[in-house]
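Blinded run. Sample ID left blank on purpose so nobody reads anything into the name before looking at the predicted structure. Input follows.
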Amino acid sequence: MTTHASLTIGRIAQSAGVAIDTIRFYEREGLLPPPRRRPSGYREYDQAAVSRLRFIRRAKDLGFTLEEIRELLALSADRHGGVEGVKDRAAARLKAIDERIAELQRVRDGLSELVEACPGHGSPDDCPILKALGNVNP
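Blinded prediction complete.
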């Protein structure tokens, strides 16, 4: 007979570094399987739930959406082609991050030019920042 460590929702939240409401949300979204219930109705989790929550949290930290995380979880169970699919998803996420960084760099460069051009005093009509934003006088 195998004994499973029985953890409360508070314990797995603490162990995984997430909020209790987050665990409930992941259950509703199908990212975390429904837990066993004690006769009292309280949720009862095992260590696998903690591992899954940590996986989800780390994937979110890397910028994956919940739908992408759902796909990664499904692929992680595929013993034959799953790794290729995981790599493809990670490569796509990396490309999206690189594109976002390039866009943010363009925005930063443009804003930096405006800040440099603005004297920081005088009439708002002469402010290059307000001009670039399309200064609208009420």
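Unblinding after everyone has recorded impressions. The longest helix spans residues 82-117.
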